[in-house]
Amino acid sequence: MGVPSGYTSAQVVQAVPTGINSALVLISATTVGSAVASVTVSNAFSATYDNYKITYTGGVASTAVDLGMILGATTAGYFFGFGYIPWASSITSLTVNNGASWAYVGGANTALTFISCDIFRPFASDETLITSNGANASNGNFGGGYLNNTTSYTAFTITPSSGTLTGGTIRVYGYANS
Amino acid sequence: MATYKVQIDDVVRDATPAEVAQIEARQAEVEAQAEAAEARAVARQAVLDKLGLTEQEAQLLLGS
Fold this sequence. Notes:
The complex is a heterodimer of chains A (178) and B (64).
Chain A (H helix, E strand, L loop, with lengths): L23 E8 L6 E4 L9 E7 L2 E2 L3 E7 L6 E9 L5 E8 L2 E7 L4 E8 L7 E8 L3 E9 L8 E5 L4 E2 L2 E7 L3
Antiparallel strand pairs in A: 1-14, 2-12, 3-9, 3-14, 4-13, 5-8, 5-12, 6-7, 6-11, 8-9, 9-10, 10-11
Chain B lengths: L4 E4 L2 E4 L2 H35 L3 H8 L2
Antiparallel strand pairs in B: 1-2
């Protein structure tokens, strides 16, 4: 395949064979407003994808907080195990045992917001699973959990453990089923 | 009652009383969980003090 005029060889993109789809497809990008105590993304989940990736970066919080998540309007039945490892100390664990939210899917402070989580089968009528990983200036962290019901969800809400969020973008991606 | 702003997709508005209650319930739950974790850390330190071990020595013994 020749290199078109104006391109280097490194910029040449091979043709994609028929039937090969992008593995991760952007579904929505929501810009967070100013000083909001929660952000709901509607129409995030559908029958098109089984599994999803959600990120939230580029914003700030009014204080150092954990970022929690609920699906739809459900405020019970959340289970989550969370561990964080400070650079100069040992691991500390936090748990949500049949709680009102997945309370530790991400974190934020006055300099940043960070969520990187995968949600498995939220639209399907079975239990929804979640995993998350994160980091900030003081620790690395990880978590996982599930929601103990068989409700089908299309929306999620992110809430800081206190204070408010400003700015940044919440992106939802779907993992291609095939 | 405290006031909050909530965002639904691209629309920012004042929270309804029901939404305020939900926000404050979730905040209270997280605060309670953090207090429980702090209590566990204090209890752990008390045990280490009783045994005369430092945190680093405990990590070597227990791997955590």
